[in-house]
Design goal:
TIM Barrel; about 170 residues
Length: about 170
């Protein structure tokens, strides 16, 4: 946090993987909690990207079920001595209406890897962005590499989802 503050940044972001079967999770949560506190002490945002993770052999994957996302949100919300400057960065999952009732923290949504047609992706984003507490999208590949190669149109669609009054 000292470096973040000295460089004049608005905050810091941390990917927080929680694996209840991994002893290393304790150290991860302790470090993240300390970072959240130190950022808050400087009135800087802590952007927490929490995931419940599961090890399968040598691989780790994130559990994107609504219940797992809600559990990760609850854990992230408790990090540090205050959540006054904490934001969440969450994946768009099924049942976002229910998922977003699990927090009062401001939230940005991940675009995720596009696995369905763009219209389906945009519809999921639109429904998710409409939820209280959701303040925007943080998307990458879905906008940078749309199937039709029309980046400008993909960006316009995303902007209109977040700021519908610009239509």
């Amino acid at each position: 946090p000292d470096k973040i503050h000295s460089m004049g940044f608005d905050g810091g972001k941390m990917l927080t993987r929680v694996n209840l079967g991994d002893d290393g999770t304790v150290a991860t949560l302790e470090a993240c909690g300390r970072a959240v506190s130190e950022l808050a002490d400087r009135e800087l945002v802590a952007m927490i990207e929490p995931f419940m993770s599961i090890r399968s052999g040598e691989r780790i994957h994130n559990d994107l079920s609504p219940n797992a996302v809600m559990l990760s949100m609850a854990i992230a919300s408790g990090l540090g001595h205050t959540s006054a400057y904490s934001w969440l960065k969450l994946p768009v999952v099924d049942d976002m209406e229910r998922v977003m009732t699990a927090t009062t923290l401001p939230t940005l949504l991940l675009g995720g890897d596009p696995t369905v047609a763009p219209d389906e992706t945009y519809a999921r984003w639109e429904k998710a962005v409409a939820q209280p507490g959701v303040l925007g999208l943080v998307v990458g590949r879905a906008l940078l590499y749309p199937p039709d190669d029309d980046v400008a149109s993909a960006v316009d669609i995303a902007v209109n989802l977040v700021h519908p009054y610009l239509r």
